[in-house]
Amino acid sequence: MRAKFILPALVEAKSPSWRPIKYSLFPPLGLATLAGHMRPDDEVELVNEHVEAVRLDDIPDLVVIQVYITNAYRAYALADHYRTRGSHVILGGLHVTALPQEAGRHADSIVIGPGDLAFSQFLEDFRRGRPRRLYFSPRRSFEHIADVRRDLIKRELYLVPNSLVVSRGCPHHCDFCYKEAFYLGGRSFYTQRVDRALAEIESLPGRHLYFLDDHLLGHPYFASQLFEGMRGMGRLFQAAATVDSVLRGDLIEKAAEAGLRSLFVGFETLNGANLKEANKRQHSLRDYRNAIRRLSALGVMINASFVFGMDRDDPQVFQRTVDWALEAGVTTATFHILTPYPGTHLYRQLKTEGRLLTDNWDMYNTREVVFRPRHMSAAALKAGYDQAYRSFYRWGSIVRSSMAHMDRPTHALRQFCYTAGWKKFEPLWNAVIKLKQLGAARPLLEALLMTRQKVATHSSTSRHCVPVKR
Ligand code: B12
Ligand code: SF4
Q1: Nearest bound ligand to the CA of residue 20
Q2: pLDDT tens-digit profile of 53-96?
Q3: Percent of the chain, pLDDT > 70?
């Protein structure tokens, strides 16, 4: 069988806010994982349109397309194209799960939910010549997830080619998160077996890993075993987790010893009432500061994520958040405009309140306002969001947040280089990508991440020193 797996590029690819380095950072894994269900004698092609062009003059037997909200229209156009040519088209992913009827108009088959077991059932039916229109399986575990077909990933197109996922979903239930809709009707958090996760890590070349898990510390026992197993492997890694998991026990120290060098943390908002209304576990600003202090003491850089436009936000929220983040010394910040994904509680609430402004999915990219905010105009929300980015990433701000770590000069310098390198050298990154030289930039990033200062760690734990360099 000839099968083509396509991750379509969001329409924004043609817009001025397109940042090629963001998409060349690491390979997404959805389709490479599904491709693991193909037989060795199948002819399989995998195309990530964010980093390479899709050929349209072929006629595969099967076309498998992953649909996010922001790439939905492009996904439908590709699906229509291949159906006209006679290929069987199957669509799946987050947006298909949220809006199966919409997606169904562009597909021969659709899959709802995580879909790994369902996809293998589809393949059986397809080979027998009797594919169904709709697939769904509530049975979910890593036993049904195939090994990632890494041979299909074009490593030279990415700065960190070793992305991996060792858990699916998250133990929390925030109202605005996509996961509530996606994992409906079955388990919404499950982990790989520790020995299999470690074997996968062992099999990856190079040092640097990028975990794509929503919450790598979500299952404390699993994470603790994983980090124990990774100790001494000489790896460096980046991952995502929540504030409370950073503050709990000594898991974060174990992560740092295993090679954690930068963590994406969803702070979301500085307003406790906003968190409460979003059903997100609440923290005080003191918790936030403690988490940041603890991570910095371990030499772990912080990518802080914030959401603007929640119901308690007013026009002061933007500068207040930026000032707080700079003063706290976070390394990079990702700002989002609150976005109600179809299928979530937030979407239903705003729809009931008549506050949705558009159902143009291209705009659901967290950079545009798609609902009527409560305490400011949509225009003020958009302007404040844009201003927050400008304000956080001006040279003076980069210096200011790095200076928050002057008690640890190595960490301060490393943070300065990392933030500036990520945001201030766009033309250079574009040239590196064009010249296909990302592999040459990798050792620089690794060297930066490896530099760590000998530091005292969190007072409640007994671990105190981390090596200067590994
Ligand atoms: C890596 C990543 C990125 C990367 C690369 C994305 C890319 N498209 O190239 C970067 C950083 C660039 C990025 C950017 C953005 N992202 Co992003 N990203 C992710 C992340 C962290 C991991 C994706 C991944 O590889 N997962 C691991 C694989 C194994 O899981 P999977 O992709 O879900 O695939 C499985 C199933 O979905 C299913 N499946 C998927 N497709 C299909 C198809 C068929 C036919 C079948 C049967 C099954 C199936 O089977 C797969 C294998 O198990 C996810 C969060 C997450 N945990 O998934 C967010 C996520 C996908 N991103 C999200 C968003 C909003 C964005 C941005 C809009 C943010 C922004 N403001 O810039 C942009 C736009 C991205 C786009 N292309 O549309 C949202 C999407 C929400 C939605 N409802 O669509 C997510 C879910 C994050 C979140 N928590 O909200 N992202
Ligand atoms: S903690 Fe993060 S990943 Fe988990 S449900 Fe909340 S927003 Fe989603």
Answers
A1: 1
A2: 999 999 999 999 999 999 999 999 999 999 999 999 999 999 99
A3: 94
What amino acid occupies position 173?
A: H
Q: Which atom of ligand 1 is nearest to the CA of 135?
A: 47
CA distance 53 to 9: 10
Q: Does ligand 2 have an atom closer than 6 angstroms to the CB of 9?
A: no
**pLDDT, tens digit, for every residue of 140-186?**
889 889 999 999 999 999 999 999 999 999 999 888 898 888 998 88
CA of residue 70 to ligand 1 center, whole Å? 10
Give the pLDDT of residue 139. Answer: 83
Domain coverage including residue 267: 159-450
Q: Is 266 in the pocket of ligand 2 (CB under 6 A)?
A: yes
The residues, ordered by sequence, that sit 6+ positions from 26 with a Cβ below 8 Å of its Cβ are: 158, 159, 160, 161, 162, 163, 210, 212
Distance 218 CA to ligand 2 centre (A): 10
CA distance 267 to 177: 14
Do both 313 and 421 map to the same domain?
Answer: yes
CATH number at residue 60: 3.40.50.280
Q: Is the CB of 242 inside a 6 Å radius of any atom of ligand 2?
A: yes
| CB 245 near ligand 2, within 6 Å | no
Q: Does 242 lie in the same domain as 290? A: yes
Q: What's residue 275's pLDDT? A: 83
- Of 66, 122, 265, the one to substitute when testing ligand 1's pocket (max ligand atoms within 8 A of C-beta) is 66
pLDDT tens string 258-270 = 999 999 999 999 9
Pairing type for strands 62-66 and 43-48 reads unpaired
What's the CATH code of the domain at 252? 3.20.20.70
Task: Assess whether 204 and 346 both reside in one domain.
Answer: yes
